[in-house]
């Protein structure tokens, strides 16, 4: 998907539960350097590794994906709006005035794992799983649009003469 659509920006609501997890999982399970695959620079032909795409070991910093802007929407929302808790569902309710369902991670994992193993896994569960992922993806962009985050950040970068990535 990344190679076909070639996005300039990657947006995650909670970096530790999404992109960090995928990067670490790809490395541990498949010995795949997902950071290199996601970057816009070509992969090295020999066995040397490039250290330009990297992720902090402690998980405090955003992963550096060469050629793409990576945004952690949870961190941005903490500086933009005041909430008691910064869950995706709570942010959607307070910013867009919409209630969205919250499914426990264990239930989502069960739906994902049971899809191929359990004969009782129904189409309804699969559609709910896809709908939940789609709702989160579209919800991220709707939150960004409603708060005008891209325009504000671009304007700050233009005024202060710094890169988009370094504004926040």
UniProtKB/TrEMBL annotation:
Concerning Gene3D superfamilies, the annotation shows: Ribonuclease H-like superfamily/Ribonuclease H
The record's InterPro entries line, in alphabetical order, gives: PolZ_Rev3, RNaseH-like_sf, RNaseH_sf
A single GO cellular-component term on record = nucleus
**Gene Ontology MF terms in the entry:** DNA-directed DNA polymerase activity; nucleic acid binding
Biological process, per Gene Ontology: double-strand break repair via homologous recombination; error-prone translesion synthesis
Name of the protein this chain belongs to: Uncharacterized protein
């Amino acid at each position: 998907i990344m190679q076909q659509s070639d996005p300039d920006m990657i947006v995650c609501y909670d970096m530790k539960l999404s992109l960090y997890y995928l990067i670490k999982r790809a490395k541990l399970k498949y010995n795949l350097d997902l950071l290199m695959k996601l970057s816009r620079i070509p992969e090295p032909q020999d066995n040397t590794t490039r250290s330009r795409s990297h992720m902090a070991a402690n998980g405090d910093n955003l992963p550096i994906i060469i050629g793409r802007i990576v945004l952690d929407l949870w961190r941005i929302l903490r500086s933009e709006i005041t909430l008691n808790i910064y869950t995706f569902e709570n942010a959607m309710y307070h910013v867009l005035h919409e209630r969205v369902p919250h499914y426990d991670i264990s239930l989502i994992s069960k739906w994902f794992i049971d899809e191929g193993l359990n004969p009782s896994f129904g189409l309804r569960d699969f559609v709910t799983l896809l709908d939940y992922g789609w709702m989160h993806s579209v919800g991220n962009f709707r939150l960004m649009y409603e708060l005008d985050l891209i325009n504000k950040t671009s304007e700050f970068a233009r005024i202060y003469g710094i890169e988009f990535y370094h504004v926040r």
